[in-house]
Amino acid sequence: MVMKKKYIIIPNCSDLNRGDQALVWETKRIAEEAGYIGDYYVTVEDNEPVEQSIRHGFKPISMVLKHPSRFFKHNDNITYSLSLKIKWGGVALVDFITSLMLLFPFMRWIIIPLLGKRRKESIRVFRDSDALFIKGGGFIHFYGGLTSLYYAYFSLFHIYFAGSLHKKIFMLPNSIGPFEGVGVKWLVKKALKKCDLITIRETLSQEMLRNELGLSFPFYPDLALYLSNSKHSKFDLIKKYDIPDGRKLVAITMRPHRFPQSKNPQEDYVKFKREMANFIEYLYQAGYMPMPIDHTLAINTNENDAICINEVTKFVTPGHFFYFSDTSLNCKELKSIYSICDYIVGTRFHSVIFSFANHIPGIAIRYTGNKAQGIMRDFGLSDYVIDIKDLTCSNLINMFDKMIKNEDEIKNKIDDYLKFATEARLKLIDELKNNKL
After folding, report:
1. In this structure, are residues 134 and 157 in contact, taking their beta carbons and an 8 Å threshold?
2. Which residue, among 434, 348, 436, 428, has the nearest Cα to 29 in the 3D structure?
3. Separation CA 69–CA 75 (nearest Å)
4. Per-residue confidence (pLDDT) for residue 76, from 0 to 100
């Protein structure tokens, strides 16, 4: 009897983050088209829902190295106290020693019997797997500070672990960088060298890797561009959710943000919310219907878009916006919601990707990593990216008005990129076939 092959996809996937969910689902689909047929496992955070992914054919497993917050859970995590950080530091120290032992075969069998049942099962799946796929997206970006070295180790650990087991490792299109912090570049470079295939999803990261790490990898578009919509028509969706008709719809995504580089992070977050509220009022007065959308939900406050949206819309006149929220939707169904809109102003970058895939023009609000700046540049739309720390209602209005004025040109650029992306996907499948087990 021929045993089914086993493949693992990292980093974590939850039904609450529809952008990450799309990347995991598309990673599996493109891998299968390249001939990697078998059972697909995905790492998940404890207590986060994954039922949609299970129905989509995934088997969830626990992380081998978990976040130190698990013993001192703090869901209201817009800010952290010093005492909480010290507690997490103690957990991280123990985690580091334990996880480091797992990377060496002669020490692995000493520590494994002492671990919990779920971690043992995850280790077994890693040991029995045929390959590790790093989903499309972006998680390798570090901004310095006291915790940067451990955070880099934590983020990259599962790559190191798969490498220690001599597994094939394939990184699908990712944004990578910056690499700030002592020792971070060394850790990143060491992890990347364990991969059999690495692909980059925008040329800004490609250039950063070449200039700062001396590494060169091919560029392929973001995998979420290939996600199909649900089969519901625009008319059906408008009717089902009673979405206002008669005005052009402007999808808006917002998220809580810590402003980690700011001297006054809480003040800057309050300012961001006020400016977004003013912009929503402007859109309504200009004849549009602003439609804030819950793109990403979460157990923790800092990842839950609903928290930010509710705080912003408190400052907006009732009836001057339509708040779209349906926590039951999967990534394909949510992508269809963007298709009924006319424009997008997105802080969650995959809300912009979902919109562009539906030929909807828009503006990206950049908050971390290279993804927004890099991908918008590759679309030829650098003039339509604004950094969250620089955002004001006034400059957002100017950018939006410029977008309206140049709408046809923007749509042409989006269409050109989508044609390129279709061809690039076939090449990526060939890359994976060339690395077949």
Report:
1. no
2. 428
3. 10
4. 57
Which residue, 21, 11, 51, is CA-closest to 353? Answer: 21
Amino acid (1-letter code) at residue 101: M
Ramachandran class of 166: left when φ > 0, alpha when ψ lies in -120 to 50, beta otherwise: left
Q: What is the DSSP letter of 390?
A: G
CA–CA separation, 99 and 123 (whole Å): 11
Distant-in-sequence, close-in-space partners of 2: CB < 8 Å, separation ≥ 6: none
166: tokens are 């001599």
Question: Tens digits of per-residue pLDDT, 267-311?
Answer: 999 999 999 999 999 999 999 999 999 999 988 777 899 999 999
Give the separation between CA 214 and CA 226, rounded to whole angstroms.
31
CA 214 – CA 210 distance, rounded (Å): 4
For 152-264, strand residue ranges (E) read: 168-180, 197-200, 248-253
Give this prediction's pTM. 0.94
> Up-side HSE of residue 417: CA atoms within 13 Å toward CB?
27
Q: Is 394 left (phi over 0), alpha (psi -120 to 50) or beta?
A: alpha
Is the CB of residue 155 less than 8 Å from the CB of residue 92?
no
Average of per-residue pLDDT across 45-51: 90
CA-CA distance, 309 to 43, in Å (whole number)? 29
Neighbour order of strands in the sheet with 248-253: 288-292, 248-253, 343-346, 362-366, 385-387
Tell which residue, 76, 193, 64, has the closest CA to residue 118: 64
